[in-house]
Design goal:
By secondary structure, this protein is an alpha+beta fold. The protein is 47% helix and 22% strand. The termini are far apart. The structure holds adenosine-5'-diphosphate. Adenosine-5'-diphosphate is lined by residues 106, 110-111, 114, 138, 140-143, 151, 156-159, 168-174, 197. Adenosine-5'-diphosphate binds at residues 106, 110-111, 114, 138, 140-143, 151, 156-159, 168-174, 197.
Length: 205
């Protein structure tokens, strides 16, 4: 992103950009700056997780948290004509609030980002005696088998050519995996190319 920001700024400064094109260059500086901020934030989150600092836990209802993430992401889903809905019941776990946010937000954001126009995202929350869980199902592009065990690696992206359009950093799922490990949870993923992906996260109660 920095190359694009510097390139656009230099061109604007040189006076070579036509008046009617200026807004486009300014827009590019803005969107590339947002990508850079997202990237830096993700790197900071990951390095904090790498430090293994003991983070304070509290009782968290996964259903209430998911409701909040759905509220934040509904405008993003609306823009792509994707329906997002929440099902299930209260599921209280003892967990780190910031990490639970990162997990649910990243999974739902991906389910929207890698979906198709008119598709859907279904989030279900539930619990049993020992754990609470959240399931995120999408009707998106899916992930081919050969990529499935690599998508949790840092900076790994299936389709690198579209990274600018989707605006991702390739770090979201690494953060999810790390956060789950920190809280002694588990993650399961199933995906079919062209059909969709479902990811379920279990956290001890
Ligand atoms: P990104 O910032 O690229 O979204 P992530 O670490 O969150 O990074 O995901 C890594 C890669 O896994 C993505 O680039 C994408 O190719 C793939 N991926 C993640 N979630 C989904 C999904 N729900 N459907 C299809 N592909 C996905």
């Amino acid at each position: 992103p920095l190359q694009a920001i510097m390139g656009s700024a230099e061109l604007l400064q040189s006076g070579l950009v036509r008046e009617e094109d200026k807004l486009e260059f300014i827009g590019r500086i803005r969107s590339e700056s947002s990508r850079l901020v997202a990237l830096i934030e993700d790197i900071i989150h990951l390095s904090q997780l790498d430090e293994h600092v003991e983070l304070p836990t509290e009782d968290i209802d996964l259903f209430e948290r998911a409701k909040e993430e759905v509220r934040i992401l509904t405008p993003v889903a609306d823009e792509k004509n994707i329906s997002i809905s929440l099902h299930g019941d209260a599921a209280v776990v003892e967990a780190v609030p910031q990490l639970v946010h990162e997990i649910i937000y990243n999974l739902c954001d991906n389910a929207i980002k890698y979906n198709v126009k008119g598709g859907s995202v279904d989030i279900t929350v539930g619990s049993d005696k020992s754990k609470g869980w959240i399931l995120v199902e999408d009707t998106g592009i899916g992930i081919a088998r050969e990529h499935l065990n690599r998508i949790f690696e840092r900076f790994y992206r299936v389709d690198k050519s579209h990274s600018k359009e989707t605006g991702g950093t390739g770090l979201g799922l690494s953060i999810v995996k790390h956060a789950i490990e920190t809280m002694n949870g588990e993650i399961k993923i199933e995906s079919t190319e062209g059909k969709g992906t479902s990811i379920q996260v279990f956290l001890p109660r």
